[in-house]
Amino acid sequence: xxxxCAAYQNGSKLGDIPVAEISEYVTRPECFVWVALFDPTxxxxxxxAEEFGLHPLAVEDAHKGHQRPKIEEYDDSLFVVLHTLESxxxxxxxxxxTGEVDIFVGPNYILSVRHRTQKGFNDVxxxxxxxxxxxxxxxxxxxxxxxxxxxxxxxxxxxxLESELEQIEGNIFVRNTARSNIESLYALKQKLMLLTHAVDxxxxxxxxxxxGRVPPVCAGMGEYFRDVYDHLHRxxxxxxxxxxxxxxxxxxxxxxxxLADSEVTKKLAAWAAIIAVPTMMAGIYGMNFxxxxxxEWTFGYPLAIATMVAVDLFLYVRFKKTRWL
Amino acid sequence: xxxxCAAYQNGSKLGDIPVAEISEYVTRPECFVWVALFDPTxxxxxxxAEEFGLHPLAVEDAHKGHQRPKIEEYDDSLFVVLHTLESxxxxxxxxxxTGEVDIFVGPNYILSVRHRTQKGFNDVxxxxxxxxxxxxxxxxxxxxxxxxxxxxxxxxxxxxLESELEQIEGNIFVRNTARSNIESLYALKQKLMLLTHAVDxxxxxxxxxxxGRVPPVCAGMGEYFRDVYDHLHRxxxxxxxxxxxxxxxxxxxxxxxxLADSEVTKKLAAWAAIIAVPTMMAGIYGMNFxxxxxxEWTFGYPLAIATMVAVDLFLYVRFKKTRWL
Amino acid sequence: xxxxCAAYQNGSKLGDIPVAEISEYVTRPECFVWVALFDPTxxxxxxxAEEFGLHPLAVEDAHKGHQRPKIEEYDDSLFVVLHTLESxxxxxxxxxxTGEVDIFVGPNYILSVRHRTQKGFNDVxxxxxxxxxxxxxxxxxxxxxxxxxxxxxxxxxxxxLESELEQIEGNIFVRNTARSNIESLYALKQKLMLLTHAVDxxxxxxxxxxxGRVPPVCAGMGEYFRDVYDHLHRxxxxxxxxxxxxxxxxxxxxxxxxLADSEVTKKLAAWAAIIAVPTMMAGIYGMNFxxxxxxEWTFGYPLAIATMVAVDLFLYVRFKKTRWL
Amino acid sequence: xxxxCAAYQNGSKLGDIPVAEISEYVTRPECFVWVALFDPTxxxxxxxAEEFGLHPLAVEDAHKGHQRPKIEEYDDSLFVVLHTLESxxxxxxxxxxTGEVDIFVGPNYILSVRHRTQKGFNDVxxxxxxxxxxxxxxxxxxxxxxxxxxxxxxxxxxxxLESELEQIEGNIFVRNTARSNIESLYALKQKLMLLTHAVDxxxxxxxxxxxGRVPPVCAGMGEYFRDVYDHLHRxxxxxxxxxxxxxxxxxxxxxxxxLADSEVTKKLAAWAAIIAVPTMMAGIYGMNFxxxxxxEWTFGYPLAIATMVAVDLFLYVRFKKTRWL
Amino acid sequence: xxxxCAAYQNGSKLGDIPVAEISEYVTRPECFVWVALFDPTxxxxxxxAEEFGLHPLAVEDAHKGHQRPKIEEYDDSLFVVLHTLESxxxxxxxxxxTGEVDIFVGPNYILSVRHRTQKGFNDVxxxxxxxxxxxxxxxxxxxxxxxxxxxxxxxxxxxxLESELEQIEGNIFVRNTARSNIESLYALKQKLMLLTHAVDxxxxxxxxxxxGRVPPVCAGMGEYFRDVYDHLHRxxxxxxxxxxxxxxxxxxxxxxxxLADSEVTKKLAAWAAIIAVPTMMAGIYGMNFxxxxxxEWTFGYPLAIATMVAVDLFLYVRFKKTRWL
Lengths: 325, 325, 325, 325, 325
Description:
seven-stranded mixed sheet; 11 helices; 17% strand
């Protein structure tokens, strides 16, 4: 589905143009065309490939979807694959939905193709059109703006994961939460993997857009792409930290389970003793020997009961002291 | 066993040729010979070595088989070893069978030798012959097509492993599945190792077929080999992700086992108490003291029973509340 | 809030200057301006950006705060982000508070912006003014002095963590401390993560301030920045060591928990046996058979009791020997 | 002990020569001397050092033995240390014996010194003498042949370890094998370490004998040394795989131990219940209340027994269903 | 405290010289001064700094002590920090004491400063003076000799750790040693960390004293420093091996603890059954039903006892068979 198709010159918008005229605008100097698609059909993609003269391998990748994030250079153009992560607020357990944005950038055009991603890039277009000084950089600046936007969307996801971890950490030493803790930790790990898959390959690729030799389309914008890289690096480092804490948290949780088990065994042992001792004594006075003097005592029975109570009290106090109860 | 032996010129097939004439076609400019063998005998390999002038070390490797995946350069030719993985659908537990494909590529020839691999490369031949524009690149393009085909076969295997992991993840928090989970996780790890052994060394080697200095046979096809590399990298990253989740899953499973154990102990303790308390009381009223007033009460017996039931009810409710039952 | 604003020439202080005159002093040769801000307002930052001509991306970062530690080069100026860690002595469990210091350095100015950091840099100013020979290096030396100061503040934090680990290590083999140990180990891990986040990215960045090509502002001061790097490396290595010991300590603690559990089970088993055997014997002599000769013996009862005691003594001694008790 | 001392020229053997004449042959062009020693005395080593003019540091290393595998360059000569691993078939548990081979190679000589290694290099000498075309490369080729031979000896060791792992894997889910499994896994790990210590440093060193700048003695033989490297890399990768599986196997085994423990507890709990319930009932009918109507019923006793049996049957069936028995 | 202060020329000792004349000898060509200090006072260090013209940062480091091992280059001089480890034989548990040696090396001088290290470097001085040919290299050779000496002192420490590990490994599968094993493993890990902290940074630094560009003071001695590097690398690799085995040993020990626990539970269960069954039977014959025919049989009592014994024997044999006892 075509979302937008506009031509820009010297940093300001010339106006929306029909798809069929793209190839004409692309050849004008100082002018570039910015097209946005959402879940395009095969025909739409084929038309774009023809108008812009896209590389067949890149078009095939964009068509198949499910690429890993990457930035590939084809002659003087770039093919960029980004992953988007969107939380599904209505669903239970708020899982993350993975989408994909494929971007084709040449000296005179930029084409973004959105797959399985709810939120579009209208903000980016508005922001770019408000800054003609920067938009004059051409398609390279739009690429930066799109990447910056996608990367900025990772931060709330990351913060949600961080606060999820904090919440679990708050529960980890609370009794009887081991089962739910372990389930939460595993679910957190799964979400973390999704974010890692989105961030790590992109970080690696973005590192090549500034510094030494950069693709011509990004020339002169090193500081901007370094900024994107820096954001990705920060996310990467935070993910690493969360993952590290998570591993420790799982281990600690295992320890808490064992501890809880140990405490149950102690309690079991203590109460077993408290019940078994009087049972034994009762058994003894239940024997049928003919000559058992205690049985004939007037206060034999209350004395026996008293002894039982006394022994149990003694045991109870002792177990309390040694923390078995 | 000889599967195919054909000569190509300018991107189109000249026709099948007898093995003895290979050496003649190989010297013609703009022409290349494509031979496919399956589990060749010593004699067949020797004949090929002579016709193509293959390097003795490479021939020895191909003959012995069981090489790790690699790409070796001998002067102007390449020796490529690929692993194939095929699932054995009829066998129980659907294990993976490992096969090997050895490819010798020179400027004017390509020789593929298939070992323990059911599925042949007829598709590749058909695809190549349909694209004369690309086949004109010569043996380098055929090498790409073969590698691309082998690598594409990894994806269904990988997806099977991913869905196996998902299935185990779905069971991991279900009670009484710990044993089967742990067995499945271990089996999954074993299959993952096979895939790792096929993919990792190949990825490393493929990285040298594009970018800086490339073997002359692959010259001008950098974007295609980068595509293969990219696929391998994606598989590699996915394997890493699965492995990471698997390690966590095993740890979590251990935790679930401990938890289950803990729950059994709790139940044991609770029921033991419920049985032991009436037993103790019965023991007390089974003592043979002469003076036990309760024994003479008309309602002594029902009262005793009622007390027992009451105590047990109290215990039962309490244990239910604290989740021991 | 403006803390300080002074101009320096040839290593000695010219005097405090009003903010509005900064841009004038900045253009004088051999002269530089040193400004310190604390939690500045948006207006203050905007004023500084104008006076010093700071790069918008850097200003935006400084304004948003919560950057990861980094050193970024913008033309002939540097933007440095440092994390400060301050222990909160009054709070329970003495957690660490993370602050941030952003430093803008150009050939003729240095601007430090302190966020959420109690302790200022007055010491640094005093130290610099006492060493005019070094201060002659200009803003580069002040940058070194500030970084050195921030890094030096990590050492007491690190030492506190080390002694915390030692304290836990001293308890790890003490009985009944497993729960508090595991909680302390986790808390220690959390603090360690904070320190890692402060140190690791900074170390990486500092490595680029000496050796090969260095930013012009730091030229000629390689040995000083290498010294800072060396300190960071030492902290990094020590953190790694603590982390490694910590992982082992958690594992060992898990072992101790299992051991303790095992000992409880042994005790339970031993006492169960000691109580159960007399109970069984009493049960036997409580049977109602008509012909039980022992029951009629004069000393049947004491003999039975004596046997019980003897059996229990035997068991007790045996259990003591095998360390079950 | 001197094993062999022969001179070669143009790829063919001139004949055995006395040690004293070595220095003479070494100076002849196109000629090289090949000496093999086994556990030499101090005097023998000193003599060799003199005849060949070996570097004192290398001689000292060879004399002391217990070096890690390495390849060191001294001017135009190389000092190579290899580890040999030999299984001791008669010994219980077939441990591995580590030996050492030190090789000194110069343009005109090769000296191999065998320590604690049963199997000699006669095969290598025979193989070399059968291939004069290759032997013409001189001492470099002999070095290759020796290294190839030593590395080839690792493969049967590696295969033995692999089949040992497979055997353990076959037992890992079998009940009551946890103890022997864990002992086998640890023993396997120990052997794996020995192999790692032999292979890893050698692989690293061999990587410098082909590709970019190579020691003159190995010039022109890059493809051969790459082959050795490739073998070492394959062993290395396989070791890594085994190690990874081993770690998982130990974890899984731990899980199986916990599972078995859990099953024992369940059985204990189930049988305890089955025994305790009738005991409780018997206790109740053993009470001495005067008014217990059931006691006077004619069929009271069989009814009681029948109830007990019924309850136990019910419990038994239930426990069977929930897999506690 | 000044230990030694001597001047050397052309490889031989000129004689001990007073500290005040150092600066004079240092300027003589072909001559160098070798000074050894032990725990120097502030004044002694200041005097040395002046006589030799040491860099203030290095002097400050040496004075503060507690540096990590490193080699720093200041113009044409080096500042080397080494850690010494000395076992304290009289102390219980033979812990390791960490000392520090700081070495300042210039073209004409070498100054070693020993902190907290019992054993001095008299051996090194004697060895150097016995080899005038090597001593002619000047201060670079003395540096090598000192480093070699310090590194050689690590070997007995390492061997002690290795034999400690072997001793623990011998105990790991012995019953009832889990607690002491785990304590020993942790203590071993702690010592290993000390050694790692001494070796790893030094290895890294030493790697820069041979090969490509080397500090002028070490020029021409590459083979010697590579030898030191090689020793450090060997220690590093051995430490890695021990650490790896240690991790596995801790895991295995955990497994043994769980196994032992499981065996205790089995024993408990078995004996519980053996005691509980006769108790139940006795309970049944202790019931007070009026019509219980067995009670009136003449041999009822011995029959009951015989049945109990028979059942227990049966249970005992069964438990023995299934290894519960």
